[in-house]
Design a protein that fits this description.
α2 runs parallel beside α9, α3 runs parallel beside α4 and α3 packs across α7. The strands form 3 sheets. A 7-stranded mixed beta sheet has the order 1-9-8-5-4-2-3, sandwiched between helices. Strands 10-11-12 form a 3-stranded antiparallel beta sheet. Strands 6-7 form a two-stranded antiparallel ribbon. The longest helix is centred in the last third of the chain and has 19 residues. With 375 residues, it is of the alpha/beta class. The chain binds pyridoxal-5'-phosphate. The site of pyridoxal-5'-phosphate has 14 residues, from α3 and α4.
């Protein structure tokens, strides 16, 4: 069967912005208060309602991780165990404060942190476990918390992929030690750029609040009222990692539309699952899309050559794809002496297909036909 490839580009991911976000940004611009102020406060209040505990907004997800590590008291030389199969942001956040990322393996099914491998990598210097909620699922998160508890470690969840996901009836970010989210352009909700740290530990969150504003103590309360401090105290290293009103205005409208945005992602992922779950040579991550809000849709092939052929066909049909991710222990900055078997095999076999709320079922049908070489 011959079919002419559409010239239309099918994007891997996309910021999906409505008139509501545009109007909200114009309102901030008209008010002439673009920096951190009342919109950020409003967005944080909405997020706190969403998670059921406080959230502190920052400039991006990487900053959220860095500030969480710093505020928890991770120091230069401390070790943070993190899966190698993650965006380099997780690793850079760790080295930004001088700590050492210890790359660990993933579970072959979920591509989330492999707790058996984690156990082998704990040393006297280990302070934090940083599981990454790959594609939106959390893997065996309760086992990660169990190991952390047994070894007096804390868990900082890199939940950048999992905004909106629930685990055992609880929203990711709404339980556990610390969770960090990203609101960059392509995440489940966006502020353009942005991120947040969620926790129940109020002292810890205050440290994050101060550190995002150059360490200026208690400046956040003034900024929320569109004011700032002139006579202030600084006793810790801080960064300019706060969120702006422009970003928060986008985030507020995205969060109001989250039911639509999340359900659309889940619906598209279900459509992929329906079409690809019984295809020979392809395996899917076994998510329950009643609970998981997927950030990416990653499939695995039984061989690299099969995957590479599909990549060529997608290119020929103007369908973008992703490789999430090049393992961090393959990068010169983070190279290890040891092999991470499941990460390395997964990297040679995985492929991410387009997923964003502006796609339709017919796009998914077309992509799956191309993947399966139906024409
Ligand atoms: C997006 C992302 C981050 C960082 O978020 P930014 O907002 O882009 O800084 C961290 N970890 C993972 C797994 C991500 O996908």
């Amino acid at each position: 069967m011959e079919k002419i490839a559409p010239n239309k580009l099918t994007r891997l991911s996309k910021s999906v912005i409505s008139d509501l976000e545009k109007q909200a940004v114009i309102k901030v611009l008209d008010n002439g208060f673009l920096g951190m102020g009342s919109e950020v406060k409003e967005f944080e209040d909405m997020l706190s309602d969403f998670f059921g505990r406080p959230a502190v907004c920052v400039s991006n997800g990487t900053a959220a991780l860095q500030l969480a590590l710093q505020a928890y008291g991770v120091s230069p030389g401390d070790e943070v165990i993190v899966q190698s199969l993650t965006y380099v942001a997780s690793f850079q956040a760790i080295t930004a404060i001088g700590a050492i990322p210890v790359a660990c393996d993933v579970d072959p099914e979920t591509l989330c942190m492999n707790w058996r491998d984690v156990e082998k990598r704990i040393t006297k210097k280990t302070k934090v476990l940083m599981p990454v909620h790959y594609s939106g699922g959390v893997g065996e998160l309760d086992n990660i918390y169990r190991i952390a508890k047994n070894n007096h470690l804390i868990v900082i969840e890199d939940a950048a992929h999992a905004f909106g996901t629930t685990y055992k009836g609880l929203r990711v970010g709404g339980f556990g030690d610390i969770a960090c989210f990203s609101f960059d352009g392509i995440k489940n909700i966006t502020c353009g750029e942005g991120g947040c740290v969620v926790s129940s530990d109020l002292d810890f969150l205050n440290k994050v609040r101060n550190a995002r504003l150059l360490g200026v103590e208690n400046d956040s309360q003034k900024r929320y009222l569109n004011k700032r401090s002139w006579d202030f105290e600084v006793s810790n290293q801080g960064w300019r990692y706060h969120m702006s009103n422009i970003m928060a205005a986008i985030g507020i409208e995205q969060l109001k539309r989250f039911t639509y945005l999340s359900k659309k992602r889940q619906k598209l992922a279900l459509q992929y699952t329906k079409l690809l779950s019984n295809v020979e040579g392809i395996t899917l991550i076994d998510h329950n899309y009643d609970h998981v809000v997927p950030h990416i849709f990653t499939i695995r092939f039984s061989s690299q050559s099969q995957r590479d052929h599909v990549m060529e066909r997608l290119k020929d049909n103007h369908i973008q794809f992703g490789l999430h991710y090049k393992p961090n222990h393959f990068l010169s900055k983070y190279r290890t002496h040891y092999i991470l078997k499941n990460v390395e095999l997964a990297y040679s076999q995985l492929l991410s297909l387009p997923l964003h709320p502006d796609l339709e079922d017919s796009d998914i049908d077309f992509i799956c036909d191309i993947v399966q070489k139906k024409y």
